[in-house]
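User: For a benchmark we're assembling, each entry needs the component sequences followed by a predicted structure for the full assembly. Here are entry 17's components. Please fill in the structure.
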Amino acid sequence: MNKNKHLHEDCGVGVDLARRRMAGVAGVGLIAASAATLWPLRTAQAQSAVIYTPLETLVAPITRGARLQRGRVRLELPILAENGNAVPLRVSVDSPMTQAEHVRSLWLLSDRNPVKQMAHFRLGPWSARAQIDTRVRLAGSQRVTALAQLSDDSFWFSQADITVTLSACVDGG
Amino acid sequence: MMAELNTATPASPVVAQRPSPGASSGAPSGNARIQISRGVAAGGVLEVRLLVQHGMETGHRQDDVGKFIARNIIRNLRCLYNGVQVFDADLSSGISANPYFQFFLRATVSGELVVSWVDDDGVQGEARQRVELAA
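Assistant: Structure for entry 17:
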């Protein structure tokens, strides 16, 4: 019983739930079972201290509920960056860039940076090619999203994961 | 501390804050390099590479006594080709110090590229590059 009680208390959020169950059904086995099932949940919470913004939240202020399609956009960035202060990336969109069909806007979004919208570029048929290279700051390993709005108002996106060994925002810049 | 953090990170989307014409602090300053591809004929594609010298201070860094260093980033950067806007970018602290951009333009006529920007301190910068198209 002592052993089970120890598990029980260690479980933090599960204590109330377990106690309520115990009131109805008096059984040592049940307490142990509930403690065991809640245990991995707690450790998982502890590990995910970093909060990643989901894609829907990232694009919501831009698309305003419009349909979002994966594809047409190509995002090239390194798999691994030693330093998050200046990560080179290239974003290009499959578009003829004519008066009739061109890219109107291009966004670079971060799911971990304090400022989610890293950059917003406005393009047009005068751009000739829908491609932009730049260098971004990344606050740690994350998924970078490139979002494009075409002249027909459709939204297309692409994502790329990157591991950043030394995050920006730590020091130097 | 949280309050300071919040002022340093405005909610997205980032809105370019351009100072009113009267509020700009003096003549354009700043330093930038513009490189364009040579020997391009009218109707061809010009490659433009732009490097702006700017610290892009995020507002998240602290100085030696733990005080947050005020944010100072380029909010908006634009490029005019013979007076017509051909590139416009709203930037944030997510763009590295000394921002670099490579983009493309449809070559129309010989003329001039003018890149201008403004930062959080209201300091404006400008750089020019002559465009000579091949005959």
